[in-house]
């Protein structure tokens, strides 16, 4: 049983290690209404830590579904200006952003994908400026999850709603290291391991990675000046924070024009309340030129057609198969967790911080360096215990990076 004290420890971890809330700093929380009890714990602790203002931007799956079912296309295609100003005003004030990601994976499965794509495109365009604060680490931000009923029952379909929620709580608490005596110290140790992995990869300066697995044979170019990153990072003001909890990845930026071959997914992708599963993408000169999916192919098409950059890659991330998320043996139908069980890519916008000097570059300069731009950034999972990855060094040497889904490089001290 996950008791109140454990939930309090989790809330404190999210504030101290996740967003690293500072005294006198504002906090904007995005949370489903179903997580109200836990969210109130976070709010109370934030004020106890000296937050000057805490605002919760609530969402409700049932209201979201009603809107997509009954609202006109005109409404769905118009992202409210007040919502843009709300988020931008907190970002401009240097607030910390905490998102609790716990949506029902099947929420919009019966909604016309064109209507979902319309709303996603409108939100993506309206929040372009806000997204710069996040993707350039101008402010501190973090994403966590707690169980909600529909999500928990998707993972544990043979259990009652209450039993499923409790089972998911237990898995999350273990995966984010809250079950340890000192979770904050445990995260410091974990971040040290991820930073060692990124240091080793940055020293290698690979020009290309080659991925091979069942259904996968892909070459991914890496731009000159690329930077591998993982674990905690620093904001523009020098505040250390963890963007994702859990996180098991080290990630980099692919060259938007130098991706060739085919990649096959290994886990379902929950995109906008609809599942895309058993899909593959074929790239030529960085662009998706062919695709197929056993489930959600029409949803995948709309994702790829979001804009010009949606058919190109913005991220490659390496995650060993022995990660705690993978070892749970569960499919979470939630990208925050599933991407930390598996090597993955992201379609769409790249993080400028993955390129030397990238945060200060214009969109034109980033493009010249091979860094992709888009209104979307959607991670999808490609890793398994059958994935091999080779790295090509600047002198043409081929090195084993991953074998059988885990590190072939020595990242242990």
From TrEMBL:
Gene3D superfamilies noted in UniProt: Thermophilic metalloprotease (M29)
Cofactor(s) it depends on: Mg(2+); Zn(2+); Co(2+)
Family annotation (InterPro entries): M29_Exopeptidase, M29_N-terminal, Peptidase_M29
Keyword Endoplasmic reticulum part of the UniProt annotation: no
Source species: Ornithinibacillus sp. 4-3
Taxonomy, superkingdom: Bacteria
GO molecular function, one term: metallopeptidase activity
Keywords recorded for this protein, A-Z: Aminopeptidase, Hydrolase, Metal-binding, Metalloprotease, Protease
Pfam families xrefs: Peptidase_M29 (PF02073)
Record protein name field: Aminopeptidase
Family recorded in the similarity comment: Belongs to the peptidase M29 family.
